[in-house]
Amino acid sequence: MKMKMKCLHTLKEDPLIPFNRFHAFVYFFAVLAVVYHRFSLVMNDTSSGVPFSMFASLLVAELLFALQWFTGQGSKWRPVTRREFPERLWEMVEEKQLPKLDVFVCTADPYKEPPVNVVCTALSAMAFDYPTDRLSVYVSDDGCSELTLFAFMEAAKFALHWLPFCKDNNILVRSPEAYFNSSNHHDHSHQKIKIMYQDMKERIDSCMKRGFVSEDMIISQKESELFMKWKRFTRRDHPSIIEILLESDKDKDVSSVPLPNLIYLSREKSSKIAHNFKAGALNSLLRVSGMITNAPVILTLDCDMYSNDPSTPLRAMCYLLDPSMASDLAYVQFPQRFPGINDKDIYAAEIRHLFQINSQGLAGLCGPSCVGTNCFFNRRCFFGSPSSSSLHNDAICDAKNEGISYSILQKALDALSCRYEHGTKWGSSIGFQYESIVEDYNTGYRLQCRGWRSVFCEPERPAFFGDAPMSLNDALGQTKRWCVGLYEVGFSRYCPLTFGAKNVSFLAGLCYAYYSFWGLWSISITIYALLPQLALINHIPLFPKISDPCFYLYAYLFITTYAQELIEFMRGGSTFWKWWNEQRIWMIRGVTSFLFGSIEFTLKCIGISTPGFTVTNKVMEDDEQSERYNKGLYEFGVASPLFFPLAVVTIVNLSCFTLGVAEVLRKKVSFDEMFVQLFISGFVVLNSWPIYEAMFFRKDQGRMPTIVTVFGVCMTSLFVLLSFFLF
Ligand SMILES: O=c1ccn([C@@H]2O[C@H](COP(=O)(O)OP(=O)(O)O[C@H]3O[C@H](CO)[C@@H](O)[C@H](O)[C@H]3O)[C@@H](O)[C@H]2O)c(=O)[nH]1
Ligand SMILES: [Mn+2]
């Protein structure tokens, strides 16, 4: 028996580990040397004639770069990859012994997250290759939209045909939308089901267009009463709602196989009471599912993801059912993958560091961080430490198969009320964490601190696919939210560098700290994006000459940092251009989303504002926008506040670079002395090409709004003038 279990999965260390550690060792001393060099310049500022404040600012920037590099080493220490063998599971368990699985799908806004897509997410999970009588799908609708409920009522009917169709034809992509977009079978059964799907979609779309569920869509008195309620609701103030759409004990598909449970709920909202965004929704789901099915395993899915492989739950079970791991295994995390992003991934939406490189790194320590979706949890982990936790005691109808009674429903409705959590430990020591709007990262981190471990599962066939933001404003809005939420963890008493290092491990603490202090990057980048450039046009050298040996320190750090990233990208199966766009987006984030995130967090700390969860838009404005996206054009279009600093920085660099080159040609300054500054501004200019294009050359709807460009030009003039006076 033991032998067999050992073979459920294997683990392999990255062969480059010794090389990475050696590189880190050498790099460390180079960083020390640069800091020492800069420090000595700050101390002896009188000799060079450069104002103290300039060298001091650069020192701050370089110390923050060094901090980021240092924390980044945690995930380079011991990257591992795993493989699992789900077919061997049957040597250990029988199908009827598989644990129950509750799937949580969250949605929050029918206009940013079209109900048709949410339904496809749920259908792809309902159609898992998993015993249907052990599978339940719970949908939480924070938008409290009759449109979403209507879509799910339609989906419940469609599931009767869709589930057997998938299983009979051994289909792998079980989101109907993704399936019909990618396949072109013409046989009869295929055509029939396609027509059914299109019918359903049309009905949902026609309600979407009207904004409500119209009479002609309603078939029974019961439905009509249900939708009447919405006439009295607003999304901010409404009572709890639960609708049991499919019940495993009663409902069967067209081939008489039981269907999984499908349950729609919308927790009570009151505009006066904080509802804790997605974490609040997940905790409501935890409670209600605890009362109805109480499955020991939970899968969380965002409504912008869908299953790309029906055997995924079995893969997760290879770890969750392994007796040598099960006692302290909190979750099995699958990466997020995005098939719709363009060839060169202009917004670096793949987020390869987060979803692959760093996850493999953490996987070799305490297990990966949680990314909110595509994550199979052990329900027990939400209720205590590995040794003390037991299943939630609200569970009433566990395994009794008596169906969902009226009294359970009443209890469940109560558990959804917005006062339910008052005075309880929900959001702190029970369930998903509330202190941060990046609830996924924070919850995973805190679970690790309590002694739980996790596993990163990255099968060859991507387990889940999803949508990534497809406009620059959305992409930056998302990282701004993350930046604020990550600070909320970093600057709390649970700071990974102290609390995490002590309670998990030093290296794991570093990995988590790398993210919590993401936003500090904005300080370094903003300094590096303005100061050397303005000093250049004032003939002030801030870096060593090419002929100075110290120059090679800077060159070494720059080149090896870039080379290491490129190697990591290429090894992970990415391309040169994706890497190039990723390094560009880091600079962009530095002066936009991270800068605004840092400001927003500071305002929160002094009590001026409270950060919110702005849901990422999942729909394209129009066909032209998606055409531009597929061509690889940056999408600006709106005068988003995030674009203003970007315009300033890019125009400052363009002006200073041009002036700097002119000065060198006119021999006003020495090339040797100014090389680094010319290089930095030139590098920014090279990177900013798509932004200049959007400001000065493009005519389409996605171009940079003129007001932003004008602002950029005015501020640049102001900065240049000020620098002449001040420097
Ligand atoms: O009040 C809210 C806000 C959001 N959501 C849901 O949360 C999910 C994630 O929202 P999205 O706008 O797609 O955010 P992303 O930035 O794409 O999500 C990433 O970041 C989040 C934390 O910021 C994590 O929760 C996600 O799992 C992770 O994919 C979606 O299903 C939403 O419907 C809610 O249920 N209630
Ligand atoms: Mn998302």
Automatic annotation (TrEMBL):
GO terms for molecular function: cellulose synthase (UDP-forming) activity. Signal peptide: none annotated. The active site is at 142, 440. Mn(2+) binds at residues 278, 302. It holds the Pfam family Cellulose_synt. UDP-alpha-D-glucose binds at residues 112-113, 142. It comes from the Eukaryota. It is found in: Endomembrane system. GO terms for biological process: cell wall organization; cellulose biosynthetic process; plant-type cell wall organization or biogenesis. The chain crosses the membrane at residues 21-39, 51-70, 512-531, 551-570, 591-613, 642-662, 674-692, 704-726. This is Cellulose synthase-like protein G3.
